[in-house]
Amino acid sequence: MSITEIREEIARVDMEILELIRKRQSLAGMMAQEKIRAGRPPVDPDQRDQVIARAVDVAVEAGIDPSGIKEIFSRLVLMSEQKQRGCMGDGNLP
């Protein structure tokens, strides 16, 4: 594969990642609605820790830098929490 072809493939993977983040944000909105019905707060620290720990464990098994994955998933969870807060009327996101 040439540098150009590799870059094109990376760009395709990046688009897939963005689509998965969009889907994750959509699910966070759905989660907010369920939490409203259940009378639960938007943030669940135990769930946050479980999501991040699971990602780090998979990263270690896959030979991926676990500290980088921890940063990425910490950010993804924060984005979901912000989305849920916004959906619940406590934030600045739609």
TrEMBL record:
InterPro entries: Chorismate_II_sf (IPR036263), Chorismate_mutase-related (IPR051331), CM_dom_sf (IPR036979), CM_II_prokaryot (IPR002701). One of its GO terms (molecular function) is chorismate mutase activity. Residues 1-88 form the Chorismate mutase domain. SUPFAM superfamilies: Chorismate mutase II (SSF48600). GO terms for biological process: chorismate metabolic process; salicylic acid biosynthetic process. Transmembrane segments: none annotated. It holds the Pfam family CM_2. Keywords: Isomerase. This is Chorismate mutase domain-containing protein. It comes from Methanocalculus chunghsingensis.
